[in-house]
Recover the amino acids of this structure.
């Protein structure tokens, strides 16, 4: 393999893992409106199902080195939630990925790409604190799960095996855990979550562990005043995502051009009805304190719909 | 022409009478935790699964859910409480409404 490509692989993996973690932790929900950039707050009633379909584009093109790396990761992430009882909910998150990486090697622009179903993440959430009052509620719920290596991690092209940043699967079993909290009123909702994902080795590559701190505020813009019945709500949304990733390991050696800290601010909108929710948001990086020549994000755009069954 | 109009009116009245008679007791449930439209659907669905429920009407602003039963089908408070809990919320008050 071209050493530049190998290096590129290491650079790009942090972005991939961040995206994967995002889609995993972004895929949960329950009976309230819930954040756009993470799934752990999704509400699900007992014996009921919830489906969220999210379309994500993650662009990274501002390469600090001469490879002029330009990476576009598209994903259609399907989230299925099921309420086992009033406290316990189970979730499955399965992405379909389309990854593309362009770079300049020996004066030539080359493109490497892969698409297919990625790694399945399953997790359970258990509500340990529930306080309901007229027109408001508060929840605290730890969650734990695992990302299974269901996606291909050995895709190839004419140049050889694709780097981890282009593969649709990681090849490793990666546990995650965290806690999510929600405070909701008729006017607004605040969600916060903290999570940690332990990434394990596969194919002599180990992505750095990922720690996340996410917050979301959804504020009802319309209707301004509530009448009777159940009107649809239109929310303005602002979210923040602080993501720290350790350096990757290649053949048990730490890669200095990987990992680091990212902070995204994410404005969005949400239209909430009784049966479905449509929402969109764009994650704008405001801080990217990355190690070495790790590739920075340009933006992550999200559009999703959610259905109650 | 007048006879036809009277006949149609009489027929409509006849159709309305059984409908009105079929409506049974109704109950007012005060539910804590209801705060968005997505929540409302879950609680409607749970309460509608109770045998004998004809209709449910949620007022999200007040947190009140009206449950209308079929004739001769009473709603037990314990069952309503369980269904509200299954939907993820808390029943604060339960009362039968006078007709």
């Amino acid at each position: 393999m071209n050493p530049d490509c190998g290096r590129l692989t290491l650079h790009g993996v942090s972005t991939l893992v961040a995206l994967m973690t995002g889609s995993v932790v972004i895929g949960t929900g329950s009976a309230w409106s819930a954040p756009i950039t993470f799934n752990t707050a999704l509400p699900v009633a007992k014996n009921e199902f919830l489906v969220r379909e999210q379309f994500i584009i993650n662009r990274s093109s501002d390469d600090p080195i001469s490879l002029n790396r330009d990476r576009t990761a598209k994903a259609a992430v399907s989230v299925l939630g099921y309420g086992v009882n009033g406290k316990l909910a189970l979730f499955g998150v399965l992405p379909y990925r389309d990854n593309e990486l362009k770079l300049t090697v020996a004066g030539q622009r080359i493109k490497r790409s892969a698409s297919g179903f990625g790694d399945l993440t399953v997790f359970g959430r258990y509500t340990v604190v529930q306080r309901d009052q007229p027109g408001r509620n508060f929840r605290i719920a730890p969650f734990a799960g695992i990302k299974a290596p269901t996606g291909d991690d050995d895709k190839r092209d004419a140049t050889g095996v694709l780097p981890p940043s282009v593969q649709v699967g990681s090849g490793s079993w990666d546990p995650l855990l965290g806690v999510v909290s929600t405070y909701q009123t008729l006017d607004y909702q605040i969600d916060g979550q903290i999570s940690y994902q332990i990434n394990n080795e596969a194919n002599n590559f180990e992505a750095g562990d990922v720690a996340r701190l996410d917050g979301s505020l959804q504020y009802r813009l319309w209707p301004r005043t509530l009448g009777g019945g159940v009107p649809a709500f239109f929310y303005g949304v602002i979210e923040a995502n602080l993501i720290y990733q350790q350096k990757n390991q290649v053949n048990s050696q730490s890669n200095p051009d990987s990992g680091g800290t990212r902070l995204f601010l994410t404005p969005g909108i949400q239209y909430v009805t009784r049966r479905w929710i449509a929402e969109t948001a764009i994650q704008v990086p405001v801080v990217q304190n990355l190690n070495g020549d790790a590739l920075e994000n340009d933006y992550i755009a999200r559009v999703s719909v959610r259905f109650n069954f | 022409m007048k006879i036809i109009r009277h006949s149609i009116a009489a027929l409509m009245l006849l159709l309305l009478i059984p409908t009105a008679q079929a409506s049974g007791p109704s109950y007012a449930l005060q539910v804590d935790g209801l705060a968005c439209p997505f929540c409302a659907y879950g609680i409607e669905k749970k309460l509608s699964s109770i045998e004998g429920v004809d209709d449910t009407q949620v007022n999200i602003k007040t947190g009140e859910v009206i449950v209308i039963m079929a004739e001769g089908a009473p709603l037990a408070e314990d069952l309503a409480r369980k269904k509200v809990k299954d939907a993820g919320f808390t029943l604060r008050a339960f009362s039968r409404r006078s007709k």
